[in-house]
Design a protein that fits this description.
Gyrase A, domain 2, alpha+beta, Arc Repressor Mutant, subunit A, 7 helices, 165 residues, two-stranded antiparallel ribbon, 2 domains
Length: 165
C-alpha cells in the first residue's frame, strides 16, 4: 500500500521515519525502506533520501562501530548556534582538511559529508563562499585563491576546540 493510499501526509511519513530511526538500528536507506514497507508505506529511494535530509539524519558509528542513522536533538538558531554546531561537528566528523590553493578538501566519515557541508554553509565560516559535498568528502571554495590554507586551519582549530576568527 502506497503512502498516499494509507493516507499519510509528508509530515506523518517523516514522523514515522524519525520514529523508525530512533527505535531501530537503521544503517542504510534500503533497511529504512524495508521498515517502512513493514508499516505499509511504499516509497522511492529518492523520497527516503529527501526525508533523511529534511530530518537532518546522519550516519554515525554506534558503540560497536557500526554505522547507524541518527537524528540530532537540537535545531540550531542564530549565527552563534550555527558556529557552535559546526565546532561540535568538526570535533566529531572532521577527519582531515587539506588545502589546495583556494580550495579545501575536508574528509568525513562515510555518509556524513552532506550534513557537514550544510553546517559549514549555515555557519557562514569566514573565507568560505560555498561547499560541494559527496559521500565522505566536502569541497570548500575559498573567497580568494590563496585562502585555502587559512580555511583548512580554521576547520582544524574548530576540531581542536578553538573558535574561528
Amino acid at each position: 500500500m502506497a503512502a498516499a493510499e494509507r493516507g499519510l501526509s509528508r509530515a506523518a511519513r517523516r514522523a514515522l521515519v524519525q520514529s523508525l530511526i530512533e527505535n531501530h538500528p537503521v544503517s542504510s536507506q534500503t533497511e529504512l525502506a524495508e521498515l517502512l514497507a513493514e508499516e505499509g508505506v511504499q516509497v522511492t529511494q529518492g523520497t527516503i533520501s529527501k526525508d533523511l535530509l529534511d530530518l537532518r539524519a546522519v550516519r554515525q558509528r554506534d558503540s560497536e562501530g557500526a554505522l547507524r542513522y541518527v537524528i540530532p536533538d537540537e535545531e540550531p538558531v542564530g549565527d552563534q548556534n550555527h558556529l557552535a554546531r559546526l565546532q561540535r561537528l568538526c570535533t566529531e566528523m572532521l577527519l582531515d582538511a587539506v588545502p589546495a590553493g583556494g580550495l579545501v578538501v575536508a574528509h568525513t566519515p562515510a555518509g556524513a559529508a552532506q550534513y557537514f557541508a550544510s553546517a559549514i554553509d549555515k555557519a557562514s565560516l569566514p573565507g568560505v563562499v560555498g561547499t560541494i559535498a559527496g559521500d565522505d568528502t566536502v569541497l570548500l571554495i575559498a573567497a580568494d585563491a590563496d585562502q585555502g590554507t587559512a580555511v583548512a586551519d580554521r576547520l582544524r582549530d574548530l576540531a581542536a576546540g578553538s573558535r574561528p576568527d
